[in-house]
């Protein structure tokens, strides 16, 4: 049961939801009508059944076994089969005999003597017991029938979700997981984080990049910690690789910028990939700044030769660049906004967000540029300069369903989040790995 929290699922599986309105013995005693009227029993059935019933009422499950077996063998009409199945259900439940419970439930579900109002609970319990025995495909039709009959068990969506997902029916499982989360929220509770982990892992495995991104953003909205936010962004990047839609170098840089802005840029590998991508993208100013920040924060050793090499290369490139003001004048005179966008990129990389905003706005005015990309980076510059309202407006202008639009939505999500907190000490050791299995 590794697909959700063992504790959460175990709780769901331990809560038997069936509670029948009347058992056959009490129905006999009261002499009620129809299903609850006097049951038709032969003498061959009545004697062992009475002996078994006495043991059942005393909760002496072992003593009930022999007479109950004789009663089951003698049962040859619906009343006797109903009564025997009812006693078998109690004995098997008392002895934690799941197979015995399932046999009894199958008889009761098919019995015309069971009151209609009990069928939802019986079907729910039948599906639940199949899950206990790890027969999830078998559980699905019973759980669906329980819902159709009006079951309101809060655990039903979670059990259906786990059954579908373990049966590789991902779309159905995700829909049920959504129901389970909604049920928790309606009850005033926050759904466990591992429910989000489950959705992300399953969608990640299918290569559905858009759905994975959507659930990643939902997860961090529900659990806004820095380690979790970092995991979300890394998983997003890796989900694109899985889907065969790898992020371009500049898109990776835009994602790393978000990690840096949110405090989620934490390990040496991320710093290296960020700095290396910046140098190769012709943004040496950013590589210098990132390495210096990593060293100051202790994430990069000051004598690490790989970083020393990149740092030296980036510094040399910065020295060889002409002043950005020169490019700015040329961009102002240019016929289209292409040079203005490139100069905006350089200003953004150098940390001059005010100038970057001016150049990106100029690029949009002149036209001839990828407006989605320019609006994304305009929003980044505005967010970093503290103008979150303008930033969200710029991010909202990024259209489509590609990675650029996803990154814009991630930036918007971050702006709307409460202040990201480090993982609580009690949870730090349990933080999920960056890669979904």
CATH class of the largest domain: Mainly Alpha
| Outline | elongated
SSE series:
HHHHHHHHHHHHHHHHHHHHHHHH
Question: What portion of residues belong to β-strands?
Answer: under 5%
State the end-to-end CA separation.
14 Å
Number of strands: 0
Q: State the secondary-structure class.
A: mainly alpha
The CATH homologous superfamily name of the largest domain equals Tetratricopeptide repeat domain
Would you identify the CATH architecture of the largest domain?
Alpha Horseshoe
Named CATH topology of the largest domain: Serine Threonine Protein Phosphatase 5, Tetratricopeptide repeat
Q: Report the total helices.
A: 24
- The amount of helix comes to over 70%
State Rg: 32 Å
Supply the number of structural domains: 2
Arithmetic mean pLDDT: 86
Low-confidence stretches: 1-22, 25-37, 425-437
Mind summarizing the main beta sheet? Answer: none
């Amino acid at each position: 049961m590794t697909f959700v929290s063992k504790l959460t699922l175990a709780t769901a599986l331990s809560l038997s939801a069936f509670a029948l309105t009347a058992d056959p013995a009490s129905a006999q005693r009261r002499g009620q009508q129809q299903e609850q009227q006097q049951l038709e029993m032969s003498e061959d059935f009545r004697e062992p059944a009475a002996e078994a019933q006495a043991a059942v009422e005393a909760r002496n499950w072992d003593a009930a076994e022999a007479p109950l077996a004789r009663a089951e063998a003698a049962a040859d009409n619906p009343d006797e089969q109903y009564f025997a199945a009812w006693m078998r259900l109690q004995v098997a439940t008392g002895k934690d005999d799941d197979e015995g419970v399932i046999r009894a439930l199958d008889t009761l579900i098919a019995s015309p003597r069971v009151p209609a109002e009990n069928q939802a609970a019986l079907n729910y319990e039948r599906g639940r017991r199949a899950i206990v025995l790890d027969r999830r495909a078998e559980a699905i039709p019973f759980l669906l029938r329980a819902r159709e009959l009006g079951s309101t068990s809060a655990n039903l969506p979670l059990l259906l979700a786990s059954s579908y997902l373990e049966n590789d029916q991902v779309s159905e499982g995700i829909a049920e997981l959504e129901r389970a989360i909604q049920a928790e929220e309606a009850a005033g509770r926050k759904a466990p984080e591992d429910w989000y982990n489950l959705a992300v892992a399953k969608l990640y495995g299918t290569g559905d990049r858009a759905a994975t991104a959507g659930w990643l953003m939902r997860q961090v909205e529900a659990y806004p910690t820095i380690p979790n936010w970092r995991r979300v962004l890394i998983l997003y990047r890796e989900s694109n690789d899985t889907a065969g839609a790898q992020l371009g170098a500049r898109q990776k840089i835009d994602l790393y910028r978000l990690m840096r802005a949110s405090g989620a840029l934490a390990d040496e590998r991320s710093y290296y990939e960020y700095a290396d991508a910046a140098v190769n993208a012709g943004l040496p100013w950013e590589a210098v700044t990132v390495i210096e920040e990593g060293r100051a924060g202790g994430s990069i050793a000051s004598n690490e030769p790989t970083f020393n090499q990149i740092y030296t290369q980036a510094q040399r490139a910065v020295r060889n660049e002409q002043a950005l003001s020169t490019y700015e004048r040329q961009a102002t005179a240019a016929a289209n906004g292409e040079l203005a966008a490139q100069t905006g990129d350089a200003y953004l990389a150098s940390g001059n967000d005010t100038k970057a905003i001016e150049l990106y706005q100029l690029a949009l005015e002149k036209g001839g540029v990828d407006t989605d990309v320019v609006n994304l980076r305009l929003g980044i510059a505005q967010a970093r300069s503290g103008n979150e309202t303008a930033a969200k407006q710029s991010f909202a202008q990024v259209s489509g369903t590609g990675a650029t639009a996803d990154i814009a939505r991630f930036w918007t999500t971050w702006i709307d989040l409460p202040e990201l907190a480090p993982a609580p000490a009690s949870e730090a050791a349990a933080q999920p790995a960056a890669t979904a299995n």
